[in-house]
């Protein structure tokens, strides 16, 4: 699933960058009106109105690709892992109780390792 996720992410980033570039290249509505009266960029590469149609259609196609890639990323990012896999949320996994951690309200475990009298050469701590 990560390969599909990586492909969708690459498609989304490339379409976003291309769409940004196309939007920056396009002229505004005021520039088209100036070109219609004979001033400005009427001698452009695509003609007076051909460039606007081509660039706006290409931008619309790239926007559609961007939205489809976004929906695909949202779908793949929301997939739940299988029950037997180790992934998933920590809250969704059931934890096995550990014997070393006391349970609230339970009786303490009996002490089995009671210290014995120190060896003969050890220092004695005076008790009162």
Structure explained in plain terms:
The structure is a single chain. With 128 residues, this protein is an all-alpha fold. The protein has a domain at 12-23 and 44-80. The chain has three helices and no strands. The protein has helices at residues 2-25, 29-36, 50-77. Helix 1 runs antiparallel to helix 3 (50-77). The chain is rod-shaped. The model has no long low-confidence stretch (mean pLDDT 74).
- Gyration radius, in Å: 36 Å
The portion of residues assigned to helices is 40-55%
Strand fraction band? under 5%
Biggest sheet details: none
Q: Which structural class fits the helix and strand makeup?
A: mainly alpha
What ranges have pLDDT less than 50 throughout 5 or more consecutive residues?
Answer: none
Average pLDDT value?
Answer: 74
Total strands: the figure is 0
- SSE sequence, one letter per element: HHH
> What is the terminal-to-terminal distance?
71 Å
- What is the molecular shape? rod-shaped
DSSP summary: helix tally? 3
